[in-house]
Amino acid sequence: MQATLEVVSAPLVVNTPSAVRTLLAEWAIPCREVTDLPGLNPASKVQAVLLDDASGTLMVLFGQSHLLDLTCLASVTGRHMTAVSRDRLEDVLGKHDLKQLPGVPVLIGSPCLYEEHLLLQPLLLISSGEPGLLLEMAQEDFRRLLGDARAGHFAEPVSTLPFNLDCPDHDAEAITQAVKAFTARRIQQRLEATIELPPLAESVRKIMRLRVDPHVCVDEIASVVETDAALAAQVVSWASSSYYAAPTKIRSVEDAIVRVLGVDLVINLALSLSLGKTLHLPQDNPQSSTPYWQQSIYTAAVIEGITRAIAPQRRPETGLAYLAGLLHNFGYLVLAYVFPPHFSLICRHLEANPHVPHFIIEQHLLGICREQMGAWLMRYWGMPEELAASLRFQHDPGYTASHADYPNLVCIAVSLLRNRGIGHGPCTPLPDALFERLGLTREKAEDAVSKVLEAEVLLRELTAQFNQA
């Protein structure tokens, strides 16, 4: 009996599962096994969760010191995801003889998104796949292990979340505030129903899902584009235009993607055009204003040039910045759609007040401006938060809050183009600090504008194709 007791009470030896050990060896990732104990820094402990929706699975990594905000995540990804079912998770783990989801996205074979705060930690602790056993590795090794995973901000520090454990006298006030917030949400829902915004076409939703998929392939985007005959024709026309100087005749959407445009550009152009078709161009416009698509394409082209002038380690995501340029004036379409009786009045005031920024005129007449409407609709449709910020803060050269690079880029492009006669409104000087924040010189930004205007004839050809869509 004594011998049996000694065996039962002996410490359990836990080892890293062989599948994880093999992968780490193949990637030459050095690490050491660490027992998961309460005293470990929660900010260094990587929490892994597998989420899914109709488009597939996504592995999400964040520190245990943070709370995953699914609403925030939806803004980042454009997808409304929930945790996979227990049965499905067990199937995934069973393939590798694991008992717990390890923080190794390559092993699971799912696209991965990680909370950007993780890379602030010099050492990271990831799950080994065996409960109670963690793997400690240096930040640079963890970064290599992430492969082509994308970074984002979608988690909130637990330490900043308010809660009341020991003051019941405050409960009545807390309940009152909660009721007020609920009432405000109900009013917002009624507003959304009242203005009768059009639903997004299924093709747009599919394009949005592809846009946030880091593993999207040519066949997938070609398949989505080809379901819309008009869109497919547009993509082939873009690739065939003189601006892109295709070496030979473009015969298909796949040709256009592989040989000329690339996946990112096709997705961004298709998304912009599809959203524009959702609301349509207004019949009334201010006199002498730059046509909608011309301003959009020129702004996107300038942003693309400016972004390339930024050092790679500092550079915002090029595709998303380009899309911010294409959609920067989307609120103009929203105003025309939501307030048709007042839109003509706005146009007339813009004509009579070229010295006044449009947002002041719109605020005066409606109490709201196109930037507010456009940003609100981006969020309502579940577009990336970077786009909403780009629309909302594009005229604030001092904006330094979340995703500031994107509205800052739009601010520079719109202002510099306006100085060259593209766009509507007064010309105002840009502060040096705006360029410094982006790691950009004013001269390089001006050069980007000059190069775009040198290709103006070719860009007008591309713009004409948008107008005909």
From TrEMBL:
GO terms for molecular function: aminoacyl-tRNA deacylase activity; kinase activity. Residues 197-397 form the HDOD domain. Pfam families: HDOD, tRNA_edit. SUPFAM superfamilies: HD-domain/PDEase-like, YbaK/ProRS associated domain. InterPro entries: HDOD, RNase_Y/CdgJ, UCP036888_HDGYP-like, YbaK/aa-tRNA-synt-asso_dom_sf, YbaK/aa-tRNA-synth-assoc-dom. Keywords: Kinase, Transferase. This is HD-like signal output (HDOD) domain, no enzymatic activity. It comes from Pseudomonas taetrolens.
